[in-house]
Design a protein that fits this description.
Helix Hairpins, 3 domains, alpha+beta, rod-shaped, Heat Shock Protein 90, 5-stranded antiparallel β-sheet, 55% helix, Beta-Lactamase
């Protein structure tokens, strides 16, 4: 309805302006034509009248009535000479007297006669030996005004018809435009009421086309629904997996603590067992703390907000290598790094690289070597351990996945998942494979920041 009102108001204003322009254009044209006709008659009559001023050139009333014209002669002193037998409906005014006195130009005006009827009056100068005069001609305006009234009525009817038609078309168009919006609104309401994150799929239905703005809105909403549904599924899987993984250390800790409580009352544990149980509880508590930390890391947003400065990824890797050396004092580290500038978060990237190095340290043999190579945008890390079983390669970055070889080693099963999460959030990729003649190999590819972006951050 608002669209119909606005359309009708707009068309009404346009119709009014066009109608007024049409009316006044027609009025000006008709008055101009009438004045031209009267001036031509005055020019034709000036010759005979100049030779017979008293008799007005022999003009008779019958001829004037046939042409629907009134003619009279006005002298410079205001005296008026009329045609015998003609009515005196027209009284000359100062305009006509001025023409007689100045003998310059001509005058045209509309007047109301003594019979209360409108007339169009023109005056032209006439100079004779007997004095200066003005020939005044008048014609009734009623036929012209009747034509103008017809024009005005036609314009009003046409304008009103256009307003009504535009209002109807605006209403129909508004309904067509609002139908898909109502459908979209209803679908959104259903999603909010049922909590079902299903795509709306409204494009192509109820007048929604693929190339219009409503189609874009529908597609954007469907994309948002897919993202929300995917995020909810990931959260559910994370909660389920976390609950499963947390249950084991919690159960073990509870069992050990119950043994300690029972021993406090009965002293049933042999000598040295209490210390072993406390050591086991401390180890389980450390595992539990590590698992909680990894879960917190994974619960962060999927998108990383880069720090507002460029990073040399080689520095990040070098810092992670120093940390790994402290955890593997009996290992050798073969490191070759080249500068590689990116834009990202140094803390999360260092943790990702540290997780890869910890994995290499964990599976390297005594006095083995961990190899780190970075050339271009590619970082490669491999160890000399047993490698990754081919059937485990597709699942190596899944949350809580632990291969048969790793089940008896410390860890939460989240380290490599955090690596994939961090590298993907920075627009890179990480893949796992086996180094020929050695152990597991991980390849990280991070795109370099363009020079103009580096310059922008430096500025």
């Amino acid at each position: 309805m608002r669209l119909a009102y606005l359309t009708a108001i707009g068309v009404a204003l346009s119709a009014f302006c066009i109608g007024m322009a049409t009316y006044f254009t027609a009025r000006s044209s008709m008055y101009s034509q009438l004045d031209q006709e009267l001036l031509e008659v005055a020019s034709y009559a000036s010759g005979p009248i100049s030779t017979d001023v008293e008799g007005l050139g022999g003009v008779n009333a019958s001829a004037l009535q046939a042409t629907n014209i009134t003619i009279l002669l006005v002298r410079a002193d205001g005296a008026v000479t009329r045609v015998q037998g003609m009515s005196d409906n027209i009284d000359p005014g100062y305009e006509e007297i001025a023409i007689a006195r100045t003998q310059l130009g001509s005058s045209t005006r509309s007047v109301v006669g003594t019979d209360e009827m409108p007339y169009r009056v023109v005056a032209v100068p006439l100079s004779t030996e007997s004095g200066r005069y003005a020939i005044v001609l008048a014609r009734p305006l009623e036929p012209t005004l009747a034509t103008l009234r017809d024009v005005g009525t036609l314009v009003a009817i046409a304008g009103a018809s256009l307003v009504v038609l535009s209002a109807v078309m605006g209403y129909i168009t508004g309904r067509r435009l609002m139908a898909p919006l109502r459908e979209l609104s209803g679908a959104v309401t259903r999603v909010s009421e049922t909590d079902e994150l299903a795509p709306l799929s409204l494009v192509g239905r109820t007048g929604i086309y693929t190339a219009d703005e409503i189609g874009d809105l529908s597609r954007s909403f469907d994309t948002m629904m897919h993202s929300l549904a995917s995020s909810r599924d990931r959260q559910r899987r994370l909660i389920a997996d976390a609950g499963h993984e947390l249950r084991t250390p919690l159960t073990s800790m509870r069992t050990n603590i119950e043994l300690l409580v029972a021993d406090e009352k009965s002293g049933m544990l042999p000598a040295g067992a209490r210390a072993e149980i406390l050591t086991d509880v401390a180890a389980q508590l450390g595992e539990f703390t590590s698992l909680v930390g990894d879960l917190v890391q994974l619960s962060r947003d999927d998108m990383v907000t880069p720090s507002p400065e460029p990073l040399d990824f080689a520095d990040v890797v070098a810092s992670a290598v120093e940390r790994a050396k402290r955890r593997g004092p009996n290992l050798n580290f073969d490191v070759t790094l080249e500068p590689h500038f990116i834009v990202g978060e140094p803390d999360t990237l260092e943790r990702a690289v540290t997780n890869l190095l910890d994995n290499a340290v964990k599976f390297s043999p005594e006095n083995g070597t961990v190899h780190i190579r970075m050339a271009g945008d590619e970082l490669t890390i491999w160890d000399e351990g047993p490698g990754i079983a081919p059937e485990d390669l597709p699942k190596i970055f899944d949350r809580f996945f632990r291969s048969n070889k790793a089940r008896n080693t410390p860890g939460t099963g989240l380290g490599l998942s955090i690596v994939a999460h961090t590298i993907n959030a920075h627009g890179g990729t990480v893949t796992a494979d086996n180094q020929e003649g050695a152990g597991a190999k991980f390849i990280v590819v991070l795109p370099a920041a363009p020079p103009e972006k580096l310059a922008e951050y430096e500025d």
